[in-house]
Design brief:
Helix content: 40-55%
Oligomer: single chain
Structural class: alpha/beta
Distance between the termini: 44 Å
Number of domains: 1
CATH architecture: 3-Layer(aba) Sandwich
Largest sheet: 7 strands, parallel
Order of helices and strands: EHEHEHEHEHEHEEEHEEHEHHHH
CATH topology: Rossmann fold
């Protein structure tokens, strides 16, 4: 099959969107899914006429056949946020390294890897996994496209992490005053699709951010204006985040690192330039809040 793309992590938020958007563009898509077509999460992929194969990053013997005949791989796989059973090492590091090796052996030409921002200032097992995979990929025989998005608004501005517009409450990490270039996970999916299908050559590392930096407190005000109600705020002091970052538990240390980075803020000045280059329309926090309000 000509120009076959393998999507790894195809049942996740970003990976699923990538697979479905590639199919809408007429691309031949193979999706690596634990449990294969029998999993309920595979239905949308099957409905879109993607090929679903059973495979698991923690079972290296399943990867060679998944990579056979593939020209491009898009990998969004991660064990976060649960990261059970040392998943950050087994899945995010060792599993992806095994996939890179299998892809290289199979003659894959391009590998698009969803990493995370290169501006993170606090070490963690997740950072170790991501950077180790980046280095291995850049040293491979394949064209390496590394996508480094900043904070997903659908996650960091959601009840999962204490930002709960439905109930009018928000957990604020640190002072809440530092700006961050929140990005939509759906925009990241568009970047992955565009880079996977692009005809350009050479390795690329793309730092991805939204259209404008917004602080946590500004995000609260945006939602307050959209929903016409006042939020109740709970502040988590930096000292508490630093204590969490000192944990010997890999997952807790990673969460501590991510939240310390979030409290410190992060602005991606190249966000608009990269979006223009790949024809991606960036969605803002205002867009996200308006969408949330419309659904209410």
């Amino acid at each position: 099959m000509a120009n076959l793309l393998l999507v790894v992590g195809a049942t996740g938020l970003v990976g699923k969107q990538i697979a479905l958007r590639l199919r809408k563009k007429g691309a031949a898509v193979r999706a690596l899914v634990r449990g294969g077509a029998s999993r309920a999460e595979a239905k949308a992929l099957l409905d879109a006429e993607a090929e679903v194969v059973d495979g698991d990053l923690t079972r290296p013997e399943t990867l060679a056949s998944a990579c056979a005949g593939v020209q491009t791989i898009v990998c969004t796989a991660t064990s976060m946020p649960e990261a059970k059973d040392d998943g950050l090492k087994r899945v995010d590091r060792d599993g992806v390294l095994g996939l890179i090796a299998a892809a290289e052996q199979a003659g894959v030409k391009k590998f698009v890897y969803l990493s995370y921002s290169g501006n993170k200032k606090f070490d963690s097992p997740l950072e170790t996994a991501k950077r180790d995979c980046e280095r291995r990929l850049l040293a491979s025989q394949m064209q390496a496209i590394i996508l480094r998005p900043t904070y997903f608004m659908e996650m960091w501005l959601s009840a999962m992490l204490g930002f709960d517009p439905a109930n009018g409450t928000a957990r604020i990490y640190g002072s809440g005053e530092a700006p961050a270039s929140y990005i939509s996970a759906f925009d990241v999916a568009d970047f992955a699709v565009a880079t996977a299908l692009a005809s350009d050559t050479g390795n690329q590392v793309l730092e991805l951010g939204g259209p404008e930096p917004v602080s946590q407190l500004q995000a609260v005000r945006i939602f307050e204006n959209e929903l016409h109600k006042k939020f109740s705020l709970q502040h988590v002091p930096v000292d508490a985040l630093q204590e969490q970052h000192r944990s010997t538990d890999p997952l807790q240390k990673t969460f501590g690192a991510l939240m310390l980075g979030y409290a410190a803020g992060e602005v991606i000045p190249m966000g608009r330039d990269n979006a223009t280059r790949y024809g991606v329309r960036l969605h803002s926090v205002d867009d996200y809040a308006a969408q949330f309000a419309a659904k209410r």
